[in-house]
Design the sequence.
């Protein structure tokens, strides 16, 4: 008895600092969190980013506008299609050209496919981190269909580089549309499957309801966008309020949450997938005929069969590739809605074929900064839930 | 509502529903493949390992203009040329550092002569860098291996882009008969 009392006296409790990541499987890449713990409570949380820094902005300034496109694939590598669409939209705004109607619809279709595939990964990994294995396997089954469709479309599964400045790389085939339509008709039932497994599950609810709560005002002040912001009840979606591509020609709802906790953000993203499905379906049904590349020979590569027949085309080909397009001077910012939030491209042009400054506003970077706010004061097990719910990809965060 | 909630809490209905779903899925065909043994067919137009095209006479088509190297976003194409007799350009070395390539297909788009292609071959890995440093001879051999016969012609017909005919409208492509029929079924 005396022994125990003695031990308790000498055994003082103190805070413990641990490093979570960069190789922790639940940090979705190479995020490192420095956690100060008092028992199981998180006292302090500091995110360290930069492990995946490749200098994409700087690399973009050393390529012509046309050749910098594949770099954007590697920002958020699980929804590369959306990054491409964001990039080409920003550059088109700078050039002052516009893609033809059909290309806009195709871009909307592929961007929404990218959104579904990204949200599916988010669902699978977020749920897996919290302890449910089955939805992860089901989710990847559906993702595979989208990846196959991308491969059929442009020859690559993940790093697609499909949209082009002034349109898209190639027209879509009948076969592709048929298979996509099959998928679109099937997908709501697949969504029901996920919801059966997860939405009402009591363990899932225990782990997410009331965790990582952030109010609407605070969410705006932190600069959150996308599903993370809408979970707090703010009705903000770039697709709706500054429509690009064909988003003003289709109907869709912007789901918003009420409580701003992990569970609401989960519900918002689930509904977003259904809405994305709805957009794809409308786009296929409304798809207009016509060209898929803008008629802007100063900015887009000339058609191949003309290059060796026509001197003018050949000259355009050489100049566009070696020197880049002749760009008006100025600055331009264009935000697009990617699965993670608002992805913005900001260009400063000095009139040459390469951007003077290319800045990427990456939603993941902003979202990573809110982690301390969500984690501090909570339990260490909820850190995992919080990382999952803000949906970050470190490729985009570090750039 | 209350009673429903009560029943759910006591009888674990949501868990049972989930279990029923997984049990049902147990009897559906597997979606995975045993990869090295069973290979998935690659879709046409896949962007894989490079090959340098030959013309009908079996000569290399490339003239060494250097456009592919200038356009390549990862700058992994090296071309060395020299001047031959009667001032003809000769491509001495044409090398691609495949380990740095990102398979964007921009070199195919840049080439005005249709001299470089991306084949459907994707299984290349090795223990050292040398076998993956593609020289001119290796790239030409790739053409014989992956684009033998008609395949090369078909590649340029279908996948060498952008194309002029892609710029015009397809007849009736806006709304497809098959899709229409399926929509009726749905309703
Ligand atoms: S595929 Fe792209 S990265 Fe690879 S060699 Fe061609 S242009 Fe360069
Ligand atoms: S492959 Fe084509 S673009 Fe490249 S150097 Fe040869 S001819 Fe020119």
Sequence:
């Amino acid at each position: 008895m005396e022994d125990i009392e003695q031990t308790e006296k000498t055994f003082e409790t103190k805070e413990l600092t641990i490093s979570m990541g960069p190789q922790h499987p639940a940090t979705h890449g190479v995020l490192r969190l420095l956690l100060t713990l008092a028992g199981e409570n998180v006292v302090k949380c500091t995110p360290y980013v930069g492990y995946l820094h490749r200098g994409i902005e700087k690399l973009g300034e050393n390529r012509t506008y046309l050749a910098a496109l594949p770099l954007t694939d590697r920002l958020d590598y699980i929804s590369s299609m959306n990054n491409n669409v964001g990039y080409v939209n920003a550059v088109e705004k700078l050039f002052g050209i516009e893609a033809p109607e059909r290309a806009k619809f195709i871009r909307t279709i592929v961007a929404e496919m990218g959104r579904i595939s990204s949200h599916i990964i988010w669902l699978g990994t977020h749920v897996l981190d919290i302890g449910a294995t089955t939805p992860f396997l089901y989710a990847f089954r559906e993702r595979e269909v989208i990846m196959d469709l991308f491969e059929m479309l442009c020859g690559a599964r993940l790093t697609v580089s499909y949209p082009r400045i002034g349109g898209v790389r190639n027209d879509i085939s009948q076969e592709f549309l048929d298979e996509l339509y099959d998928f679109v008709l099937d997908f709501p039932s697949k969504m029901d499957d996920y919801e059966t497994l997860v939405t009402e599950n009591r363990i899932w609810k225990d782990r997410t309801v009331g965790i990582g709560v952030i109010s609407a005002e605070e969410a705006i002040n932190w600069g959150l966008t996308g599903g993370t912001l809408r979970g707090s009840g703010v009705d903000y979606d770039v697709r709706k309020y500054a429509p690009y591509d064909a988003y003003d020609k289709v109907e869709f709802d912007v789901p918003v949450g009420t409580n701003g906790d992990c569970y609401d953000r989960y519900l918002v993203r689930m509904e977003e997938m259904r809405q994305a499905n709805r957009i794809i379906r409308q786009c296929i049904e409304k798809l207009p005929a016509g060209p898929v590349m803008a008629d802007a020979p100063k900015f887009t590569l000339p058609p191949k069969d003309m290059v060796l027949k026509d001197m003018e085309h050949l000259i355009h080909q050489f100049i566009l590739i070696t020197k880049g397009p002749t760009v008006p001077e100025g600055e331009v910012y264009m935000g697009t809605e990617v699965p993670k939030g608002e992805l913005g491209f900001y260009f400063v042009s000095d009139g040459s074929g390469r951007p003077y400054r290319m800045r990427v506003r990456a939603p993941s970077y902003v979202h990573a900064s809110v982690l301390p706010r969500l984690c501090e004061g909570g339990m260490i097990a909820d850190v995992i839930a919080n990382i999952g719910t803000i949906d970050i990809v470190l490729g985009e965060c570090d750039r | 509502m209350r009673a429903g909630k009560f029943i759910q809490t006591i009888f674990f209905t949501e868990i049972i529903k989930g279990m029923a779903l997984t049990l049902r899925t147990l009897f559906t065909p597997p979606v995975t493949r045993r990869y090295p043994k069973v290979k998935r067919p690659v879709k046409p137009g896949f962007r894989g390992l490079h090959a340098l095209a030959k013309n009908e006479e079996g000569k290399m088509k490339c003239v060494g203009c250097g456009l592919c190297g200038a356009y390549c976003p990862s700058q992994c194409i090296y071309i060395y040329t020299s001047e031959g007799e009667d001032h003809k350009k000769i491509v001495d070395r044409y090398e691609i550092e495949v380990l740095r390539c990102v398979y964007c297909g921009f070199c195919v788009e840049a080439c005005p002569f249709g001299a470089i292609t991306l084949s459907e071959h994707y299984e290349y890995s090795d223990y050292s860098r040398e076998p993956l440093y593609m020289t001119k001879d290796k790239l030409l051999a790739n053409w014989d291996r992956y684009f033998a016969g008609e395949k090369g012609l078909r590649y340029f017909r279908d996948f060498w882009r952008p194309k002029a005919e892609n710029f015009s409208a397809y007849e009736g492509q806006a709304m497809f008969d098959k899709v229409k029929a399926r929509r009726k079924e749905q309703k």
In short: The pocket of iron/sulfur cluster (ligand 2) is lined by residues B 62-68, 79, 110-111, 113, 115-116 (CB under 6 Å).
